[in-house]
Amino acid sequence: MPQEEKRIKVLMVYHEADLGPAKAIFEALGSYPEIQLRVLGPEAGWNPFRQIMHRLPRYEKRGSYEIVSGKIFRKKRNCANPYWSGFAREVRGFKPDIIHVMNELTSLVLFQGLLFRNFFHSQAKVLFWAQENLLDK
């Protein structure tokens, strides 16, 4: 009897998960059959640079990936603030192989990812990604 291959579980944490360019990234990554992608974004959060309020459902299957949301600290100030709820729930329940935080090295959300990984699922790898501030121009 052939053994079913284990899919790589990826929890991607991104504060602008509801924007069009981000959705294209999620669709592309989720399209790989060996990856099970779940994206965590703020349930509601203000983006001061784009002057918009982000809103996401608690859970929704979107094509090749799932999107979940959590509450963030001071949502009316900045959508990149740390999570009150959602992040720890997903690390405990989803048990990702990879926690991919799309934020800067100095962000509190990345610190939360490392902390939750250590507390709830120490086998997970934590990655971060940011393109801001690479060039001084």
Instruction: State mean pLDDT (0 to 100 scale).
Output: 81
Report the structural category.
Answer: alpha/beta
Element order: H for helix, E for strand: EHEEEEEHEHE
Q: Compute the separation of the termini in Å.
A: 59 Å
Q: Per DSSP, what share of the residues sits in E-state strands of 2 or more residues?
A: 25-35%
Number of beta strands: 8
Helix content: 10-25%
Poorly predicted residue ranges: 133-137
* Biggest sheet layout: 6 strands, mixed
Oligomer: single chain
- Total of helices: 3
Structure description:
The strands form 2 sheets. Strands 5-6-2-1-7-8 form a 6-stranded mixed β-sheet. The longest helix is centred in the C-terminal third of the chain and has 13 residues, at 108-120. The model is unreliable at 133-137 (pLDDT under 50). The chain contains 3 helices and 8 strands. Strand 3 and strand 4 (52-55) form a beta hairpin. The chain has 137 residues and is an alpha/beta fold. The protein has helices at residues 20-30, 87-94, 108-120, and strands at residues 8-13, 35-42, 44-47, 52-55, 59-62, 65-70, 98-101, 125-128.
Could you list some keywords that capture this structure?
137 residues; alpha/beta; six-stranded mixed beta sheet; two-stranded antiparallel sheet; 3 helices; globular
